[in-house]
Amino acid sequence: MDHALIPIADKIDAGRRLSLEDGRTLFATGDLWSLGQLADRVRRRLHGDVTYYNINRHLNYSNLCALSCQFCSFYRKPGQPGEYQYSLEQIAAEAAQAAANGATEIHIVGGLHPYLPFSYYTDMLRAIRQSAPTLHIKAFTAVEIVHLARISKRPRDLEAVLTDLQTAGLGSLPGGGAEVFDDRVHDQAFKGKIRSDQWLAVHETAHRLGLMTNATILYGHIESIEDRLHHLLLLRAAQDRALAANLPARFQTVIPLPFIPDDSALGRLPGPTGLDDIRMLAVSRLMLDNFAHVKAFWIMQTLPFSQLSLSFGVDDIDGTVVWYDITKVAGASTHQEVGVRELRMAIRQAGFQPVERDTLYRRVIRHGPNWRVDDPTPAPGSEVGV
Ligand code: SF4
C-alpha cells in the first residue's frame, strides 16, 4: 500500500472521519487498488455483499429550457428542431405502462420550461397518482424546484412550493442540478443556474418536510480536484445538519456523474477517463461517511464499468432504466434498456448479491409485475453512516 494511505486506513478502521487533507491524498495516490480496497472495506461494513437495483422508469417531460448550460446537450430553445413536451395524458399513460410492467418508481426531470404554469407540475403529479397509484414519484431537481417557486410567484417560499408538490403526490427529490459547488465553475459553465446555497436550501427544506433526496456531483469538465473535495465536504456538512436536527428525511445516496462532452458547448474537453471515474466513486464513498449509499449510474458509465465499481465502494447501480434522454454514453443510441435478468447477472458476475429495492431502499418481494416491500423499515445500512 502507498505509505501515504496507511494513516487513512487506520482512521477508516477506527471509524474516524477523513479530513480535507486525507481527501487530497486519496485523489493524489497512484495506488488505485489500495484506494479501492479502502472504499470496499467501508462498503462491506455498511452493506456486506448486497448490491441494490430498482425497477424504474425515467421520464424527461420536456427538453425546452430557459437556460443554456455549457455542459448540456439536452436542452432546446422554442422552435429549435428536436424540441418536445409531453402532455399530461401522455405522462399518465407512460406511468400506467411502467406500473403495469412492474416498475416501483418513476423518475421525472426536465428543462426549465419557459411557458408552462405551476399547475402543469401539480397536475402531472396528480395524474400519475391516479393512473399509477403504486409508483413512487421521484421528481424535479433543486434547479427545477427553484424555477417552480419563481413561476408560482413564491420565489422565497420553498416550503410552500414543496408542500404543494408533496400534497399532489411527490415522494422524493432526485439529486441532479448540483453540478459542482464552486462559484468560478458555476459562472463559467452553468451561469444562470442556482448556486450551491440555493441547491442545499431546497434539499434541507425537503428533508424538513420528510422528503428523502439524493445528491450528485458532475465532474470531469473545468473543475479542479479542490472543487470536487469542497463539494463533497459541503454535502457531508449538510447531511450532518440533517442528522443532528433529527429531521424526518435526509440524503440517501450520492451519485457521481461523469461529464460527457458530446454535442455540448464544452465538447472540446476530453471528459474524465475510466481511472478518474473509478477514483471519484471510491473517494466519494470514503469522504461521505454519513451517506448510506453510493450509486454508479450505469447508463452513463456502462454496465461493465458498473460491475467493476462494485469493488470500489459502490453499492447501488440504479435500475432498469427504459428511457433516458438527458445524457448518454458517447456513441450509444438514445434508447437504452437493460432487463432485470441482465442486471442481476451483471451483479452476480461481479461477486455480489443483487437485491431489488424501492426508492427508500426497502427490499422488494416480487412476483412478476406484482411486488410488495418486504419490511416497511429501511434496509440495513440505510439509516446510519460509517
Ligand atoms: S442542464 Fe438543465 S438547466 Fe442547464 S440547460 Fe440543460 S436542461 Fe437546462
Description:
Helices cover 40% and strands 14% of the residues. The protein has 386 residues and is of the alpha/beta class. A four-stranded parallel β-sheet has the order 5-6-7-8. Strands 9-1-10 form a three-stranded parallel β-sheet, with helices on one face. Strands 2-3-4 form a three-stranded parallel β-sheet, covered by helices on one side. Strand 7, helix 11 and strand 8 form a beta-alpha-beta unit. The protein is globular. The model is unreliable at 323-335 and 380-386 (pLDDT under 50). It binds iron/sulfur cluster. The site of iron/sulfur cluster (SF4) has 12 residues, from loops.
Short description:
By secondary structure, the chain is of the alpha/beta class. The chain contains 14 helices and twelve strands.
User: In total, how many domains does the architecture comprise?
Assistant: 1
**Name of the level-1 CATH class:** Alpha Beta
Roughly how many Å is the radius of gyration?
20 Å
Instruction: Enumerate how many helices there are, as a single number.
Output: 14
Which structural traits does this protein have?
386 residues, alpha/beta, TIM Barrel, 4-stranded parallel β-sheet, 3-stranded parallel β-sheet, 14 helices, 40% helix, globular, disordered C terminus, binds iron/sulfur cluster
Walk me through the topology.
Layout: H1 6-13, H2 20-28, H3 32-47, E1 50-54, E2 56-59, H4 88-100, E3 105-108, H5 118-131, E4 136-139, H6 142-151, H7 158-168, E5 172-173, H8 183-189, H9 196-208, E6 212-219, H10 225-244, E7 251-258, H11 274-287, E8 293-294, H12 298-301, H13 303-309, E9 316-319, H14 340-349, E10 353-356, E11 364-367, E12 370-373
Parallel strand pairs: 1-9, 1-10, 2-3, 3-4, 5-6, 6-7, 7-8
Antiparallel strand pairs: 11-12
Helix pairs in contact: 2-10, 3-11, 4-5, 6-9
Iron/sulfur cluster (SF4) binds next to loops.
